[in-house]
Amino acid sequence: MTKFRHEVFTDTHLNRMEEIMRDVCADFETELREFNGGNNHVHLLVNFPPKIAPSKLVNSLKGVSSRRMRQEFPELARHYYRANKLWSGSYFAGSVGGAPISVLHQYIEQQNRPG
């Protein structure tokens, strides 16, 4: 979720954010299986080994994406000027080891992107 729940992301932003987050996942030796989002949030399905701490991965995903998005899209600054942060401090992570991957893919794909 974006800081202050500002509705800031367009398809262009989300496409670039997906590239950035795929790079971060690769650096962690994890796999970003699905990515989607809306104008103020993103959904990720990440496959990662037990040696990776979810909190460290999330902090890196949020930190790197915030820094790069602010550099590449300076117009985003008007939405986070009060805190100089793109993301809120919270996130949700769930384990889905028993769920069929097709169900997870379908859920992420159905999350609407803005026009």
CATH superfamily: Transposase IS200-like
Q: How much β-strand is present in the residues? A: 5-15%
Tell me, rounded to a whole number, the average pLDDT: 82
CATH architecture title: 2-Layer Sandwich
Shape: globular
> What is the CATH topology?
Alpha-Beta Plaits
H/E order of the elements? HEEHHH
Portion of residues within helices = 40-55%
Please report the total strand number as a whole number. 2
Tally of distinct domains: 1
Please tell me how large the radius of gyration is. 14 Å
Distance between the termini: 18 Å
> Looking across the biggest beta sheet, what order are the strands in?
1-2
From the helix content, strand content and strand pairing, which structural class follows?
alpha+beta
CATH class: Alpha Beta
Q: Low-confidence stretches at least 5 residues in length (pLDDT < 50)?
A: none
Protein name: Putative transposase
Domain Transposase IS200-like: 1-111
GO molecular function: DNA binding; transposase activity
GO biological process, one term: DNA transposition
Gist of the model:
By secondary structure, the chain is of the alpha+beta class. The chain is built from 4 helices and 2 strands; from the N terminus they run αββααα.
Please give a handful of descriptors for the protein shown.
115 residues, alpha+beta, Alpha-Beta Plaits, globular, transposase activity, DNA binding, Putative transposase, Transposase_17_sf
